[in-house]
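User: My instructor asked us to take a sequence, write out its structure as tokens, and then describe one feature of it. I'm not sure where to start. Here is the sequence I was given:
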Amino acid sequence: MGTAGRALGLTFLLLLSFVPVRPSDPPETLEELQRRFDNEPDGVNKAKMLQKLGNAQFEREREAEKAGDFDTVGFVMEKYRDNVRAAFEAVKKIHPDAEKHPSGYKQIESHIDVGIREVNDLLTVVPETHRPPLQIVKSDLVKLDRELLHMLFPRRPGEKPVSPKTNPPSSGMEKNP
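Assistant: Let's start with the prediction itself. The structure tokens for your sequence are:
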């Protein structure tokens, strides 16, 4: 069987060499990625999809910025922020305890950092008239990032919880009425 097995194996390899190789599927468009993201019911999968979708959005935003189409830049970044928020809400819905179930949260948090850097870069190049929407996007992403970090790491050594009922300590510099 040794010689027959080798001959069979060589014949099989020879046949495989004549099988036409199918070209790889074309990359998904931003619209296809967005559709898949919007239709994804699982929060963790949605968070994982955010990375590929977000990168495609950044690519579209950069193309628009190079073309001087700052309205599209703002629109794309607002949609990115909305997608981050949607993924975050979907993950919170299925895993409200991020510390015990960090899957999904970690992917979103790491991509938010990229998004914040992207917005910061944009704020240095877009005309003044197009900055306010981007500043709002940045502010929203920073808030989401903080919330994610607090959910992932709720216990922080040395940090005292802030009670909303207590007033901050007096500096002694206030005027008395």
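For the description part of your assignment, you could build on this observation: The chain has a mean pLDDT of 84. Try explaining in your own words what that tells you about the chain.
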